[in-house]
Specification:
By secondary structure, this protein is of the alpha/beta class. The chain has 19 helices and 21 strands. It folds into 2 domains: 269 residues, Rossmann fold (3-Layer(aba) Sandwich), CATH 3.40.50.300; 264 residues, 3-Layer(aba) Sandwich (Rossmann fold), CATH 3.40.50.880. Helix 1 runs parallel beside helix 3 and helix 12 crosses helix 19.
C-alpha cells in the first residue's frame, strides 16, 4: 500500500475559490497573493481542475487556452504560467490536479486492493485522496505556504469534491493554519452608475452553504470598491470591511500584487496565519512603472505581428504575449500586437505584404496540423527577403527550414511530414518524425516534452543572445529537422546566387536534434525548436524575445 501522507504541522494553506462568473482571474489572484509572500517564504502553488482530462495536453487551444509545459514534462493549465512568473518557482506536474487524475488514482488503488474490499465512495475516498495530495505536496516540497486554486466557480458540479476536501482540510489543520480567499465580481450595470454588491453576497452565501467562510473577499471591479460598499459586503459576508479587497481592473496583470499590497492583504495574512513575510517589490514596481509609462507616453512604439491559426482565442498564445511585454518593459518601449491569421494569407484573402505592412517584428509561434501552414511559409519568406526581425518558435522553426529549403536551396517539394495525407505526398521531408515517434498512437503526453539542455555554437548569434554556450529550455514537439538534409540545407543556394546562409546554431546535448537555427545577412532571423516563452518572466525576460525587440528597435 502506498504511503499515507498527513499534515506536517508546519505548512500554512491558502485556498482560493471563485464565484459569480468564470474568467475573473483566479490564477492571477492566487499568483499575486503568492508574490506578496514568496520573497521570504517557500510558496508552492497547486491547481485543482474539475475536468476529466488527465491534463490539458490534448485540448484544442481555442477551447482551453495554451498548454503550459513544465520542466519535468508536465502539460498544465495556463495558470501555471502565472505561478511561475509571479512566484519565481519551477512548478512540477504533480502540482496540477485534475478530476481525471484523481479518478484514475482512485481506480488504480481499487484494482490494487488498497481499499481492502470496502465500497469505494466519493466521500470519504475521493475527498481523502485529494487531501492526501495536498499533504503530500506540502511535505515533499517543505512548503511554508501551499497556495491552492480551485478551478471553476462555486456551484459547479465538477469542483464540489475539491471544495469539500478543502473544507475538511481547514478543519483538520486548525484555524491558524488555513484560510479561504474568495474572488467575486462587483459590477456597475449600464445606466445605474453604481457598484452592486448582490452578486458577491450571493456567491459568498453559496460558499457558506458548503461549510466555507472566506476571510478575504476580492471583488473584481472597474474601479476601487467604495468604502460604504466594503462595509455592506463585510456585513453580509461576516467580514471586517478591510478584508474586502478591490480587485480593480488594471492594464497589466503585473500591477495586481501592488494593488493587493496597498489594499492590505499582507497584513491580513500575517495576523490570520501568524506569518511574517513583508513583500519585496522594488524591482517589480520599477518594471510595472515602465509598462504603464510606455502605455501612455512611450519612448518608441513597435508593432509585433503574431502569425498563427488559433486566432479565435488570444489565450492560445498567452505566454508569447507576456514574453513580449517582459522584453518591452526592460527596453523601455511599447509593443503593440497585430494578430495575423495565416489561413487568410494561405487562402489569398490578404497577401503577406499586406498583412505585415508597417510591422517591426514578426513571430510565428508553435502549432500543429496542416491548416494555415502555407500561409505561415509565405509570411516567413516575406520577412526573410525583406529583413524584418523574426522569431520562429517550434513549428515556426520547422517551417522556417521548409521555406529556406524550398526558396534558397532549391529543394523540390520540401515540406514537413506533418503535411502528409492520403491525397498529398511530401516529396522532400526536411522535417520528419523524431526517432520513436512514428508509430505512436496515443496523443496525450507522448511528445518530446519538458526541459532539455541545448548546446550553442561558438560565435553564433544564439551565443550572443544568450551569453552562454549551454542553456536549458522547454520542448513540446513530435517532429524535428531531418538529419539527412542538414548538410544540404546549411550549404545554401547551390547556384551561389543567394549568399544568405542558414546555420543550425543550437543542438541537443548528446543527440543529433537541431534546436536553434539562424540566418546570416539578416538583422535578426532566429528560430528555435523549444518554447522560450515558457521561461520568460517580468524580472527575467526570455533572451530570444529581448533580442527580437532590440533588433526591431534598432531597425525602426
Amino acid at each position: 500500500m502506498a504511503q499515507q501522507y498527513q499534515y506536517n504541522g508546519k505548512t500554512k494553506f491558502i485556498i482560493v475559490t471563485g464565484g459569480v462568473i468564470s474568467g475573473l482571474g483566479k490564477g492571477v489572484a492566487a499568483a499575486s497573493i503568492g508574490a506578496l509572500l514568496s520573497a521570504r517564504m517557500k510558496v508552492v502553488p497547486v491547481k485543482c481542475d474539475g475536468y476529466l482530462n488527465t491534463d490539458p495536453g490534448t485540448m484544442n487551444p481555442t477551447e482551453h487556452g495554451e498548454v503550459f509545459v513544465l520542466d519535468d514534462g508536465g502539460e498544465c493549465d495556463m495558470d501555471f504560467g502565472h505561478y511561475e512568473r509571479f512566484l519565481n518557482v519551477t512548478a512540477k506536474k504533480d502540482w496540477s490536479l485534475t478530476m481525471g487524475r484523481i479518478f484514475k488514482m482512485i481506480l488504480d488503488k481499487e484494482r490494487r486492493g488498497d481499499y481492502l474490499g470496502h465500497t469505494v465512495q466519493f466521500i470519504p475516498h475521493v475527498t481523502d485522496l485529494i487531501k492526501e495530495q495536498f499533504y503530500r505536496i506540502a511535505d515533499q516540497e517543505k512548503a511554508d505556504v501551499l497556495l491552492i486554486e480551485i478551478g471553476g466557480t462555486v456551484g459547479d458540479l465538477e469542483n464540489q469534491f475539491y471544495i469539500e476536501a478543502a473544507r475538511q482540510l481547514s478543519h483538520d489543520v486548525g484555524r491558524t493554519n488555513a484560510m479561504f480567499v474568495h474572488l467575486t465580481y462587483v459590477p456597475i450595470p449600464s445606466g445605474v452608475n453604481e457598484q452592486k454588491s448582490k452578486p458577491t453576497q450571493m456567491s459568498v452565501h453559496d460558499l457558506n452553504r458548503l461549510g466555507i467562510y472566506p476571510e478575504i473577499v476580492i471583488g473584481r471591479c472597474e474601479e476601487y470598491i467604495k468604502p460604504h460598499l466594503k462595509e455592506k459586503i463585510g456585513l453580509f459576508c461576516n467580514l471586517p470591511a478591510d478584508h474586502v479587497i478591490s480587485g480593480v481592473d488594471v492594464q497589466h496583470v503585473y500591477e495586481c500584487p501592488l494593488v493587493y499590497d496597498a489594499e492590505g492583504i499582507p497584513e491580513i495574512l500575517a495576523k490570520r496565519l501568524n506569518i511574517y513575510a513583508p513583500p519585496k517589490l522594488d524591482q517589480w514596481s520599477k518594471l510595472v512603472e515602465s509598462l504603464k509609462r510606455n502605455s501612455v507616453t512611450p519612448r518608441k512604439t513597435l508593432t509585433v505581428a503574431i502569425c498563427g491559426k488559433y486566432m479565435a482565442l488570444e489565450d492560445s498564445y498567452a505566454s508569447v504575449v507576456e514574453s513580449i511585454r517582459h522584453a518591452s518593459a526592460h527596453l523601455d518601449l511599447r509593443a503593440d500586437i497585430r494578430w495575423v491569421d495565416t489561413e487568410k494569407v494561405e487562402n489569398g484573402e490578404i497577401t503577406a505584404a499586406e498583412a505585415l505592412k508597417g510591422v517591426d517584428a514578426v513571430i510565428v509561434p508553435g502549432g500543429f496540423g496542416s491548416r494555415g501552414i502555407e500561409g505561415k511559409v509565405m509570411v516567413i519568406q516575406y520577412v526573410r527577403e525583406n529583413n524584418i526581425p523574426f522569431l520562429g518558435i517550434c513549428y515556426g522553426m520547422q517551417l522556417s527550414v521548409v521555406e529556406f529549403a524550398r526558396h534558397v536551396c532549391g529543394m523540390k517539394g520540401a515540406g514537413t511530414i506533418e503535411m502528409e495525407s492520403s491525397n498529398y505526398h511530401v516529396e522532400t521531408p526536411v522535417i520528419a518524425y523524431l526517432p520513436g515517434q512514428e508509430k505512436i498512437k496515443d496523443m496525450g503526453a507522448t511528445m518530446r516534452l519538458g526541459g532539455h539542455d541545448v548546446l550553442i555554437k561558438e560565435g553564433s548569434k544564439a551565443q550572443e543572445v544568450y551569453g552562454s554556450n549551454q542553456i536549458r529550455e522547454r520542448f513540446r514537439h513530435r517532429y524535428e529537422v531531418n538529419p539527412q538534409f542538414v548538410q544540404q540545407i546549411e550549404a545554401g543556394d547551390p547556384t551561389g546566387a543567394n549568399q544568405q546562409k542558414l546555420v543550425f546554431s543550437g543542438k541537443a546535448s548528446g543527440e543529433d536534434i537541431m534546436q536553434i537555427m539562424e540566418l546570416t545577412d539578416h538583422p535578426y532571423f532566429m528560430a528555435c525548436q523549444f518554447h522560450p516563452e515558457l521561461k520568460s518572466s517580468l524580472i527575467h525576460p526570455a533572451p530570444l524575445f529581448l533580442g527580437l525587440l532590440k533588433a526591431a528597435d534598432e531597425r525602426a
